[in-house]
Structures are given as structure tokens and as C-alpha cells.
Amino acid sequence: MTKEVIVNGALGKMGQEVVKLLNRTDGFKLVSAVDKVDIGEDIHKLLGVSAPVVEIESDLAEAISKTEPDAVVDFTTPQVVMENIETGLENGINMVIGTTGITEADIDKIEDWTEEAEAKVIIAPNFAVGAILMMKFSQMAAKYLDQAEIIELHHDQKLDAPSGTAIKTAELINEVQNATEKEVDEIEKIIGARGGEEGNINIHSVRLSGLVAHQEVLFGGVGQTLKIRHDSINRRSFMPGVKLALESLDEVDGVVYGLEKLMEF
Ligand code: NAD
């Protein structure tokens, strides 16, 4: 059966990729595109996609009541994402959320909403399957190598630092690593030169145009180093994860946080 989907934030960098994903993937159909710009324009024409006309709408609630979709995919902004989730759930619609900035307190709220709505929400701060594997492999390595540092590299429009993925990786390493005490009293000649610290892990954030989303996890042990690196070369890298989330909606309950929960290891 075809899954009918609304993309919220359809004209954004990620939203556009999701619109294209739905168009090229059997079993999915874009039924509405919501954004705050180019209202009334045909999203497919704007993106150069050969597909039936879908006009851009400005109001998610209206788009839902017109089309009664199977799911909403949201890639908007941290400022509006909670409002969007509430709107979707109030209308009993399952949601796939890629927008970042959702806190633990927000998740508690979303859990309450899903119970009332009997709808499901999959939230993934990182939809790149390779990035999830990088985190898993890093946690495996951390059991055997007792020093680690993270370098995360992103495009220069990224607002937050370090990335959520870097923090999550450090948390996973800290859970299992027998960290050794630093043997030297470091002198930081330029403040921040050693990066920020999450537990025992130093995280360094690089911001440059030309980059998309990249991370290296460097491990040190006696007489050896190990480097685990993931590169999202373009935003299409996130689409297999979005597809997996849409396909998994039928099998999950309530709120699922993290793409890793949908993957088998
Ligand atoms: P973007 O700025 O290119 O796109 C955001 C879009 O949302 C814009 O078109 C904007 O007009 C629209 N928008 C803003 N408010 C809206 C509202 N109330 N209703 C509908 N549309 C609205 O940003 P982006 O690069 O596409 O990223 C979007 C979000 O996804 C960010 O939070 C980003 O951090 C996150 N992101 C997540 C992943 C992941 O794997 N989960 C990957 C990349 C980016």
C-alpha cells in the first residue's frame, strides 16, 4: 500500500531531498509540501522533478486536514519543531522528525502526546546510517583503547557546536572506557585549543564552507592509534535513514529516539 506523506519544511535543504526521495521511491507519495516561502508554487516544478503538481501550503494543520496523510516528515527549525509535532499528534498523524534541538524534557512531553493521540513519532538527530555505525564502532573500540578525542567538521552555516552526534559519541565512549588520568598539566596558550570536554573526551569543532557533515574519532593506546571516520558527502546520505524510519512506523510504538533503535546489530 502506498504511504502518503507530507513534508514539512519542504523547501529547506533537507526537505527538498525528502521530496525527491518520495518521488523516486516506490510505495511513497508526496501529498502535501509545507513551508513558509513560495506558497502556492508547485514544489515539483521548483525542484525540477517530473511529478504531478503539489502546491506548497503554509499551514501544517490545514495540509493534514486536506490530505489525511499516513505520516509527516519534519525538517524545519528547532524553534518550531515542538509546535509541529503537537499539531501532527493532535490530528493523530505519525511523524518522522529530523529537525534537531529536541531535549529530554521535550521527549517526555512528546511521549505524553503520543499516548493521548495513539500515534507514533520517530526522532533521529542523525539519519546517516554510516554515522550510527561510526558511533557503534567507537563504543566497541573504547573498551580496548583508553584515550579518545573527537573532531567534528561541518559546513559554516551550522549554528551549534559541538554537533549532537559528537556529544552522543562522547557519551557512548564514556559509558565503557576506562579512561586514564592525564599525566601532564596542560597549558592552553589559546583558550579552546584543546576543544571542549564531554566527560573524558575532548571534542574539536571545525566549521568551513565546502564541508557537509563529517566526524573523526581518534583513539590512542600503547604504541598504536585508531581512527574511525564518517563523511556525509551530500544530504542524500540521510535519505536511506529517512526511508527506514517511514517504513518502520508500522512496527514501532510511541516515541522512538535514535535511528540505531531501528537498526539490527
Ligand atoms: P533549512 O534552513 O535549509 O530548511 C528549513 C526549512 O524549514 C526552510 O525552508 C524554512 O522556510 C522551513 N520552515 C521554517 N519554519 C517553518 C514552519 N514553521 N513550518 C514549515 N516550514 C518551516 O535547514 P536544513 O538544513 O534543511 O535543516 C533542517 C533541520 O534538520 C535542522 O534542524 C537541521 O539541524 C536538521 N538536520 C538533521 C539531520 C538529521 O540527520 N536528522 C541532517 C541534517 C540537518
From TrEMBL:
EC identifiers of the protein: 1.17.1.8
BP terms from Gene Ontology: diaminopimelate biosynthetic process; lysine biosynthetic process via diaminopimelate
Pfam families, A to Z: DapB_C, DapB_N
Enzymatic class: oxidoreductase
Catalysed reactions, as listed in the record: (S)-2,3,4,5-tetrahydrodipicolinate + NAD(+) + H2O = (2S,4S)-4-hydroxy-2,3,4,5-tetrahydrodipicolinate + NADH + H(+); (S)-2,3,4,5-tetrahydrodipicolinate + NADP(+) + H2O = (2S,4S)-4-hydroxy-2,3,4,5-tetrahydrodipicolinate + NADPH + H(+)
Binding site for NAD(+): 9-14, 35, 98-100, 124-127
Active site: 154 (proton donor/acceptor), 158 (proton donor)
PROSITE patterns the UniProt entry points to: DAPB (PS01298)
A GO cellular component annotation in the UniProt record: cytosol
Span of domain Dihydrodipicolinate reductase C-terminal: 130-263
CDD domains linked to this entry: DHDPR_N
Pathways involved: Amino-acid biosynthesis; L-lysine biosynthesis via DAP pathway; (S)-tetrahydrodipicolinate from L-aspartate: step 4/4
InterPro entries: DapB_C, DapB_N, DapB_N_CS, DHDPR_bac, NAD(P)-bd_dom_sf
Subcellular location: Cytoplasm
Residue ranges of every copy of the Dihydrodipicolinate reductase N-terminal domain listed in the record: 4-127
Keyword NAD set for record: yes
Molecular function per GO: 4-hydroxy-tetrahydrodipicolinate reductase; NAD binding; NADP binding; oxidoreductase activity, acting on CH or CH2 groups, NAD or NADP as acceptor
Family: Belongs to the DapB family.
Assembly with partners or alone: Homotetramer.
Protein name per the record: 4-hydroxy-tetrahydrodipicolinate reductase
